[in-house]
Amino acid sequence: MNSTVTAVSRNAVHSFTKPNRESVTLLAGLGVEGDAHAGVTVKHRSRVAQDPTQPNLRQVHLIHQELFTELRDAGFEVGPGDLGENVTTSGIDLLSLPVGTLLHLGDEAVVAVTGLRNPCLQIDVFQDGLLKQVVGRAGDGTVIRKAGVMGVVTAGGVVRPGDAVKAELPAEPHQPLERV
Length: 180
Hints:
MOSC domain-containing protein; alpha+beta; MoCF_Sase_C; globular; Pyrv_Knase-like_insert_dom_sf; MOSC_domain; single chain; M1 Pyruvate Kinase, Domain 3
């Protein structure tokens, strides 16, 4: 199956959702141009409160379109940009990628996957009960996070819906994704 970008989103202000755009520009080492979360150091408010000098490992948020189908089947209406992601993909299992995977988006942009998004309680303000759909527990008690992956931009470029997504795995041994 071909993996593609199905939507791109950004918002210059801190809000839960991000409007869809015709394109976004990724800037190496910073994130999405014009997005509130772009920067070398952390921009998520809770992390800034802890230590504003931390490196920003959450420059770009990616979610798989297939999650929206799963949520719709559970009675929720969620679409691209609604959960604050910058890039919505289709045909690639983002959650199973190892740390350090390079995601080539379109002709130029590259995002290095740093970890899993850890959704906060704001998700239940958006739609009551949604947090339980994107964070759960496996039979052994392991936390399962399904709200996408985070990454840093290693090569800039313009990204548009319809662009190809290609994953370049890092050298083994692979390190599984953890929350960032």
